[in-house]
Amino acid sequence: MPTLPTRHLLPAAAALLLATATGCGAGSGDRADGGAANGSAASRIEAVNQAMRETSFTATGTTTAFEGATQQTWWDPEQGFRMRISGSAPEHNGEMYCKDGTSYTSAPLFAAMLAQKGQRISVPERLEDTFVATETGDCTAYFAIAPSGEYAPGKDTVIDGTDALAIEVTAGGASDTYFVSGGAPDRLLRQEATRDGSTSTTEYGGYGEAVTVTVPSDEQSLTMDEFRGEVLPG
Question: Residue 30's pLDDT is what?
């Protein structure tokens, strides 16, 4: 498998992880301040994002990361974020974690994500059980709704007996429809995503229930520089 020159490896690893595993990019540190362009949609988005930042939850569904793959997600405000991706190909199986602004991605899964962007690398067998640590910022970016979202009333529905408002977010070739509760308790109930012709649906639930998230230890993970040194010549 060919490799790339060092200067081209992972120039924007954090952005790659977020784009592959999440929606159109919420920038979770951003606030929706209810400008005229978004109207009440912005305040609804911020209410849901705030509640999710502070509440544990789980999610299950398909993913646009790899064809035919599924994903499971766990979040706890104190313990962090965990996502497990399961695909038909061995390299499409792996886990991602995030805590205190650092994301950890299992090395084979990390390589598979890069391969989709044309950056092909080989992961030595000795590194198959390790994680690549990258600084990605606020971990809630993995699930927060972008403040640019707008209501799509024609898609409003009912999910498990709860009236759900549809909010659409588009960015480049990606689009997401988020279905959020119409009122308290503020909840994200479902996300439908489209990426380059691929679609996925994720169902959210288990709000407030106990979950366990244990991020990889220092012994289990490599920094980006350490990973680069292991997979690239010279």
Answer: 35
